[in-house]
């Protein structure tokens, strides 16, 4: 029998790849439309209807904005638009059409693990693919596709070096360009591709990959600029203007706390690779995470004279988790930076991803750590292979990581169901006067299910409600503030609709926009206010 190699792995490794990709896709398909999914569904429909001028429309609540102003590069909208043409508008079916990205991610991680950690190939695949950053954050959004294309570009680059293949270098360049045009953080993996070739002194391959990627990226931005007057990238770059140091300070603490909550399993593999005792670290991490479910994590333990909380159970939990996670991650990098070429490359790639986090993140969120933690998983696997961590140990660590991912996913799915139910209850329990309109000012899944239930999206720079109309308003601070200060109409509150369940943890909003991926669930998960318009100034 032929021995398994990185390019020709044992057939069972492909079973792991297929199983991980199928499970990731199936769980994602079972979750209701959530967070930014409605935006991508809208963009997909427009891209499919007008492929030659995909950003030629307006989008947004409470004010409509040019579509080119919202960060939505083209790869995923075109792909979902094709799915809508073939499969219709079913969100579950459209999530299934993202399976190729899940499969590509698993296959690319498998290929890189075959080079970086051949003795631990399958555990690394499961730890990377069924992780708390990947599984809950898949949705209909950009994070898994950009990770899949970026990691695949690097995997192809490594094979191109081994074979001295210009055609594979060109393929890596194409994949890198697609990653960038999926989400601009893909520029980090594109840079890693060129960096790998330069590290190997393969200047021809570096030029082939880099110039191919650059030509495709610039070509697309030129195409958009012809239709819209400015490239999508330049519009987004202008919106990111500000003081770099302010951005760094704003993102440092969330980097520490989000990674502390998302990467305990990666840290356990790191501790095992560093030849430290893993069980005590696992017990401490499990106890800290359990404390989130058993306490009111946002309760004030210490307050200022003005009553502002300065210490909460959440602070303590994530502080303990940070002490478990961060020394392991740093220790792995310190060991690898003194290693061989592949070791140093993994550390450099990780540094690029972290730099991209600070340079390109408009706000903190778990999804911003998808790239860094995926590379960190490969790095921990690399050191674990070097130091002879038993496959059985790595397997139970991967199982622990999958268990944490399922917990975060369960909390996120509960949040998504609550948002869906709140919108449906508002539509079911209220109706406007004869001839009136039931509007909504809602974001995320609440807005999607409100429209599915017959409510109309209110964009105040396009239309104004009339007296007697109803408006369902999402309990989001930005929308509530806008409703209070807008001068166009006055409203009276009819009902506050709250939905929830008994699951003790929540992921929204912190997982998608905040410093922590999990908090305890107390009270309502979703809240919608139903108002009647009582006066509209002439």
Q: Features of this protein?
A:
538 residues, alpha+beta, five-stranded mixed β-sheet, two-stranded antiparallel sheet, 61% helix, 8% strand, globular
Helix fraction, binned, reads 55-70%
How many helices in DSSP terms?
Answer: 20
Radius of gyration, rounded? 24 Å
Structural class: alpha+beta
Strand order of the largest sheet: 6-5-7-11-8
Low-confidence stretches: none
Amount of beta strand: 5-15%
Major sheet characteristics:
5 strands, mixed
Assembly classification: single chain
Question: How many strand units?
Answer: 11
Principal-axis shape equals: globular
Mean pLDDT: 92
Distance between the termini: 84 Å
Provide the fold topology.
Layout: H1 11-30, H2 37-49, E1 58-59, E2 65-66, H3 75-87, H4 91-96, H5 99-116, H6 121-129, H7 143-163, H8 166-180, H9 186-199, H10 203-228, H11 232-239, H12 244-262, H13 264-273, H14 278-294, E3 302-303, E4 309-311, H15 313-336, H16 341-360, H17 370-386, H18 391-429, E5 438-441, H19 444-452, E6 456-457, E7 470-474, H20 477-485, E8 490-499, E9 505-506, E10 519-520, E11 526-535
Parallel strand pairs: 5-6, 5-7
Antiparallel strand pairs: 1-2, 3-4, 7-11, 8-11, 9-10
Task: Kindly describe this structure.
This protein has about 550 residues and is α+β, with helices and mostly antiparallel strands. Among the domains are: about 150 residues, no CATH class; about 120 residues. About 60% of the residues lie in helices and about 10% in strands. It contains 20 helices and eleven strands. The longest helix is centred in the last third of the chain and has 39 residues. The chain starts with 10 loop residues before the first helix and ends with a strand.
């Amino acid at each position: 029998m032929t021995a398994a190699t990185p390019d020709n792995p044992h057939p069972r490794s492909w079973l792991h790849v297929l199983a991980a990709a199928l499970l990731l896709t199936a769980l994602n398909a079972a979750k209701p439309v959530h967070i930014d999914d409605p935006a991508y569904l809208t963009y997909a429909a427009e891209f499919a209807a007008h492929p030659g001028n995909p950003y030629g429309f307006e989008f947004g609540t409470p004010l409509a904005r040019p579509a080119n102003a919202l960060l939505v590069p083209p790869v995923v909208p075109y792909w979902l638009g094709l799915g809508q043409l073939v499969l219709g508008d079913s969100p579950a079916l459209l999530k299934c059409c993202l399976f190729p990205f899940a499969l590509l991610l698993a296959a690319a991680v498998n290929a890189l693990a075959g080079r970086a950690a051949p003795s631990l190939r399958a555990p690394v695949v499961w730890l990377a693919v069924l992780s708390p950053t990947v599984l809950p954050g898949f949705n209909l959004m950009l994070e898994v596709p950009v990770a899949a294309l970026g990691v695949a570009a690097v995997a192809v680059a490594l094979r191109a070096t081994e074979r001295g293949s210009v055609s594979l270098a060109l393929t890596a360049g194409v994949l890198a360009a697609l990653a960038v045009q999926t989400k601009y953080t893909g520029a980090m993996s594109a840079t890693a591709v060129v960096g790998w070739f330069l590290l190997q002194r393969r200047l021809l391959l570096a030029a082939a990959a880099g110039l191919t990627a650059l030509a495709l990226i610039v070509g697309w931005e030129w195409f958009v600029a012809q239709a819209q007057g400015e490239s999508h990238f330049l519009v987004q770059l202008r919106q990111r203007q500000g003081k770099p140091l302010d951005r760094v300070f704003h993102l440092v603490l969330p980097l520490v706390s989000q990674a502390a909550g998302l990467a305990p399993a990666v840290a356990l593999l790191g501790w095992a690779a560093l030849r430290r005792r893993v069980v005590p670290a696992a017990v401490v991490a499990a106890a800290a995470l359990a404390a989130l479910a058993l306490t009111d994590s946002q309760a004030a333990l210490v307050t200022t004279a003005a009553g502002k909380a300065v210490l909460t159970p959440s602070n303590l939990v994530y502080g303990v988790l940070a002490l478990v996670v961060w020394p392991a991650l740093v220790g792995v990098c310190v060991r690898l930076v003194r290693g061989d070429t592949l070791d140093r490359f993994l550390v450099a790639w990780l540094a690029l991803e972290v730099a991209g986090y600070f340079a390109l993140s408009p706000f903190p969120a778990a999804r911003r750590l998808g790239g860094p933690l995926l590379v960190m998983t490969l790095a921990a696997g690399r050191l674990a292979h070097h130091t002879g961590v038993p496959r059985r140990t790595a397997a139970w660590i991967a199982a622990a990581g999958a268990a944490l991912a399922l917990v975060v996913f369960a909390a996120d799915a509960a949040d998504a169901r609550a948002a869906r139910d709140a919108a449906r209850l508002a539509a079911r329990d209220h109706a406007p006067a004869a001839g009136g309109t039931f509007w909504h000012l809602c974001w995320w899944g609440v807005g999607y299910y409100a429209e599915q239930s017959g409510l109309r999206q209110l964009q105040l720079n396009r239309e104004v409600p009339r007296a007697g109309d109803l408006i369902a308003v999402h309990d989001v601070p930005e929308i509530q503030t806008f409703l209070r200060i807008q001068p166009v109409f006055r409203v009276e509150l009819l009902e506050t609709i709250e939905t929830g369940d008994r699951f003790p943890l929540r992921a929204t909003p912190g997982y998608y926009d905040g410093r922590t991926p999990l908090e305890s669930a107390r009270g309502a998960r979703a809240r919608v206010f139903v108002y009647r318009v009582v006066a509209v100034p002439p």
